[in-house]
Amino acid sequence: MAKFVIAGRADCPYYAKTELVADYLQKNLPDFRIHKITQRPEVWEADLIYDFTWNIIQQDWLKDVCEKNKWSHKNSPIIWRELLDRGGKGLLLGGYNEFLEHAQLYYDVTSSMTTELMMVIAQENLGAHIEKEQEEEALKTCINPLQVWITSASAPACYNLIPILTSGEVFGMHTEISITLFDNKQAEEHLKSLVVETQDLASPVLRSVSICTKVEEAFRQAHVIVVLDDSTDKEVFTLEDCLRSRVPLCRLYGYLIEKNAHESVRVIVGGRTFVNLKTVLLMRYAPRIAHNIIAVALGVEGEAKAILARKLKTAPSYIKDVIIWGNISGNNYVDLRKTRVYRYESAIWGPLHYSRPVLNLIFDSEWVKREFVAILKNLTTTGRQFGGILAAHSIATTLKYWYHGSPPGEIVSLGILSEGQFGIPKGIVFSMPVKFENGTWVVLTDLKDVEISEQIMTRMTGDLIQVIKIWTTVAKWGVVAS
């Protein structure tokens, strides 16, 4: 019996054509069998892994398969024959061309599929693959609850976050969750009280709630990790002080996440200060899941919308598409060029979907340039007004978008690793405009008229690049000043 394995990118047109020929052969030949493997493009092509000195290493599904079997193949699809009657490893046939030649030579079968049809089927394959993944994930949650871990669980934000997570609004009413509150031993009594209050909610989606104070047990099989501000005896306001206090903790968290968490874990970083820094440190110390670590920027968005709403005498929820660029809790740029207000009472009125540019309604341009900027700068650099309610709501909303998609047409700000979009230096965590869909996010690089001036870009990236330099020095020598 001939058994062929056909693997490829879910959106690859050549995989689609190969699959069609293979299906025909399996249907018409009693001893011909196929096994199909599809992978999302980002999994097939490469996940970004970082080495000790910040160099990007390309590590992908195809490379792993080839390394295990000592094959050499670079493109989608890859086809090999499993020697069922002989044992041992499979025999590499090659790619698209080699398979079609094999089918024509041995079975006198060819394909007349047009390029246009190949492209259509490739997109259908990608949609079917994503749908299958989502169904499998939903089935798992019916059997095993979603494991949600919250670090620094004695922080006020955790108290406000738990009722939202257990309401069913974030992960859905059909997804049961188990919450683990992680903190140090000194916070154990507070955590026990929090457990009792959480159980009193009698939430239909809450399977269990527990505490963890043993470091070595942290993040066991975690599907979601919420990183809150760590407890410190005193506030720190300089990069050097922050590195001294945060590097050991992020190194520990990164190690434990890589060791204990589920392979598909999603890590979301919130807090009042040094959010970008904590995010990039976690990426460096947990390189295997770096692509699934994000920083919450919706808190700054919310503050900006509230200030604008007070100025315009409207509701903050009516204001959309505020873009937060840069350092979420530091030097950032609140961009109002795409911001619009809906249901605004004025001489011009329209249906619910009608909106107007905010900058066209605020006639005091000096207020936008000076007072608006000054208020936000004070809030974001100190974090003093970024309380538990706003932090919890921002984290929960970002998680909801991550799992179920953001509202169609809306711009969402998110802190992610820069790959050079918008001229942002690569390798730094930077807040930028995105949309969430299909369980991930897409950077909105097609937005028009959002170019950032060199002066603003330098101001925003200066401290972020400095952090990288300082961390690289610390990592190189393997010490952190105490």
UniProtKB/TrEMBL annotation:
CDD domains reported for this sequence: MDH_like
Keyword NAD: yes
Keyword Ribosomal protein belongs to the record: no
UniProt-recorded Gene Ontology molecular function terms: malate dehydrogenase activity; oxidoreductase activity, acting on the CH-OH group of donors, NAD or NADP as acceptor
SUPFAM superfamilies reported in the protein's UniProt record: LDH C-terminal domain-like, NAD(P)-binding Rossmann-fold domains
Keywords: NAD, Oxidoreductase, Tricarboxylic acid cycle
One of the GO BP terms on file: tricarboxylic acid cycle
Protein family: Belongs to the LDH/MDH superfamily. MDH type 2 family.
Annotated protein name in UniProt: Putative malate dehydrogenase 1B
Organism of provenance: Gorilla gorilla gorilla
